[in-house]
Amino acid sequence: MSPLKKQKLNKIRSQLDKLDNKLIKIIKKRTSLVKKVLALKERKNQIVDQKRINLILKNIKKKSIKNNIDPKITNKIWKNMIFAYIDFERRNFKKKK
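The structure assignment produced for this chain is given below.
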């Protein structure tokens, strides 16, 4: 790789690092909201809402197409995020008395 291309690559990677830092803050905020949702659930079987999952994925696909983003990328990202939060909810669920 030429020195010029290496310089450009490092600049782009720096931009990606800055974007990742913003994503971490967004994930922290999302996690806080998920904790609030979890506090409202009374039974463990309320954790997975397949209708809601389907609606989210459908909306993400529409928004991806509208914004000229490959919907396969966003679908994988959102599915992984949804399943990670389902796992989080299951690990943190406390039975209500």
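Interim note for the steering committee: Residues 3-92 form a domain with the Chorismate Mutase Domain, subunit A fold (CATH 1.20.59.10). The chain has one domain: 3-92.
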